[in-house]
Write a structure and sequence with these properties.
246 residues, alpha/beta, Rossmann fold, 2 domains, 11 helices, elongated
Amino acid sequence: MQSLVSDLRSFKLSGMVFSLEERLIYAQTNKLSYRELLELLCDDEKSMRKDNNYKKRKNAAKLPSMKRLEDFDFSFQPTIDQKHISDLATCRFINTKENVILVGESGTGKTHLAISLAIKALSKEYSVYFTTVSDLLYNLHIAKADNSYPRKLKQIVGYDLLVLDELGFKQLPKYSSDDFFAIISKRYEQKATIITTNKEIEDWNDIFDEEVLTKAIVDRLMHHASIFNIRGKSYRMKKFKKAEGK
């Protein structure tokens, strides 16, 4: 038995190792054939690999929290088309390389929806990465100092779904605007991107320092995009008032 376990480990079949003893007992008790036992062990291996793959992608995604779509209160934000969000939750937009832009004031649920769609994407075995715009651009700028910029840019561009949170909280410096354009340009019609922003799209000139650059970014993002303008009240204020009332 120990030799068999050692061989399975050397073949990197940890799923089979994990369930081997129980499966042998089950096979003996239920008089399974060798083929049936092997099928069970293969199923165990596939399940563990799938679970491990999900955990790796989830950790790599860097989600700030686990906000699920089922927990979103659409009744509090009636301006959001729930059917449209449900359609996006199928992740078909990732296959068709489309974008999602969530526009609204702070606390209106933009980030919740973005995280929820990212979780759906992870469950369907897509690679996902979540970051604030400021963190992403700062890290890319730092990467230029140690010559890791090309590698990091390629990594960011390669994710099936990229979630860029908090675009528009402050104007970007020239070097950051160029980096942002590089990401959007390389992902254009190749990968899906979700952006949350507190600024109306017609006001994005306040974010980027050049009108021509702004137009180029907007054109690429909006060419294939679902845009949600969330006009509702802040969830955070709702919770604050509820707590204050208590």
